[in-house]
Amino acid sequence: MIHYSSTPTNLENLITVPHSSQDLTSTSSIKDFIINNFNSSYLDDIIISSEIHLIKPNYDFYKYILDKYNINSNNVLFLDDNKDNIESAGEMGINTILVNKNMNIYDEICKYMIKYE
């Protein structure tokens, strides 16, 4: 999930990810990918479901994050490759992007950020 309190003035400062999805299968590789490709000054935290012992698509997973950071669901962008996870997050008012392996994640986040400027 990406929580944003305001839209960055220059999206390039937020995201420097390669222009293709990558196979990220372990917790450490996911965190490394995010840390190495995002400007951390725009990230509040990196939450991995297995680390908080709550499993998507259960609402408790999303509620934990919203409550922990006292944030409004419409200020969160959730990316996932599982339709059930996207649907449950969306039902809680969280903005979502369903990711697929052929997707250009950078472009999708840019489209989303421009849409909500």
Commentary on this structure:
This protein is mostly helical and 117 residues long. It has six helices and three strands, in the order E-H-H-H-H-E-H-E-H. About 18% of the residues have low confidence.
Query: What is the oligomer described by this structure?
Result: single chain
- Which structural category fits the helices and strands? mainly alpha
Q: How are strands sequenced across the largest beta sheet?
A: 1-2-3
Please tally the helical runs, counting DSSP H or I stretches of 4 or more residues: 6
Q: Looking at the structure, what is the overall shape?
A: globular
Q: Which ranges are low-confidence, i.e. pLDDT below 50, for 5 or more consecutive residues?
A: 5-25
Rg, nearest Å = 13 Å
Strand element count:
3
User: Averaging pLDDT over every residue, what do you get?
Assistant: 75
- Between the first and last Cα atoms, what is the distance in angstroms? 19 Å
What pattern of helices and strands is seen along the backbone?
A: EHHHHEHEH
What fraction, in percent, of the residue positions are helical? 40-55%
What keyword list fits this structure?
117 residues, 3-stranded mixed beta sheet
How would the blueprint of this fold be written?
Elements: E1 2-3, H1 11-14, H2 27-37, H3 49-52, H4 59-69, E2 76-80, H5 83-91, E3 95-98, H6 105-115
Parallel strand pairs: 2-3
Antiparallel strand pairs: 1-2
